[in-house]
Prior knowledge:
The structure is a single chain. This protein is α+β, with helices and mostly antiparallel strands and 356 residues long. 40% of the residues lie in helices and 12% in strands. It has three domains: 5-123, Cytochrome Bc1 Complex, Chain D, domain 2 (Orthogonal Bundle); 132-203, Disulphide bond isomerase, DsbC/G, N-terminal (Nuclear Transport Factor 2, Chain: A), CATH 3.10.450; 216-355, Glutaredoxin. It is built from 15 helices and nine strands. A five-stranded mixed beta sheet has the order 5-7-6-8-9, with helices on both faces. The chain has a four-stranded antiparallel beta sheet with strand order 1-2-3-4. β2 (168-172) and β3 form a beta hairpin. Residues 1-12 and 126-140 have low confidence and may be disordered.
Amino acid sequence: MLLTSQTIAADNDRWYSDEQVKLGKELFRQNCAACHGQEAEATPNWKQTDANGNYPPPPLNGSAHAWHHDLNLLRRTVREGGAKLGGQMPGFEGRLNAAQIDSVIAFFQSKWPDDIYQRWAGRFETSDLPSLNDIVVAANRPLTNLLRQRIGDAKIDNVAQTSIEDVWQVQIGNRYIYLLDDGKHALMGDLVNLESGRNITERSRRIAAVAAIAEFSDEDLVIFAARGESKATLNVFTDTSCPFCQKLHGEIEKLQEAGITVRYLPYARGGSSGPGYQQLKSVWCAGDRNQAMTDAKNQRFDSLPAGDCAAAAMIDRGYRTGNKIGISGTPALIKSNGEKIEGYRPYQELIPQLLQ
């Protein structure tokens, strides 16, 4: 089922139908309720880790973080399992088909209060992406054969049919290519709907960024929490040796006071040979990462520990993720919807952009 604006507008302004919710309820209780609860409410202690340090399955009724993910990511998680997001959930590919997965999602989204659903709907625009059936069709046809002959060993990801008939989008690294004529021709560049003004390629970039960042837990990052109610979240790929990263950090209290939570991910320019690589390792190995980040951004290195702990692996991991989603310099600012803001922005300009 390919979602359209007409689909969204139906059924009480939600994308799914009553029939999908009814089917989804049955499928959810057969496949998901043992872990997530009969009504997607999970267990009362879902925020507490078990003896192995793992969190129990979270509720899906809108009271946890499921509404932070767009429809395509929810589909992928049900299909492939939760390992990519740091969870233990098994994948249901082969047990549930595309329509059934949509129905399961429809059921637990039907439990979301209107305000949560509207926040989700406003955060993620109507999906231009295909259903899982479309992806399966693409994976089982010679659509990419000629492209593979031209690009050698480069990995092709996320083969998906666009909303345009017989035009398919494929991802190679952080680039998007469009295949026409059953893969005989390829176009490189952004695909834009001139009628609506929507940049379809940019939407795919944002979805990829949200999914990539969702693979990190809060414990992986350095987080400067909003003071009071958190009104927005800003993900920042940073390098302690970057002058404009230092300048942005000097204004971080202004962002916190405005209700913005800043989540730092490491991105050492130049990789392991970059000037900030060892500094970032030291920050991630510190007992107080926030203070260590502030010290490093102010070129105070005497109090920093050696960067030889297990957490230092995050520096390479952050670099790989940044490259995957097209980060080319620091600071790279990613809004919660995946929109990328390249480079430093003064807080007077940045705060309205994040709170709009």
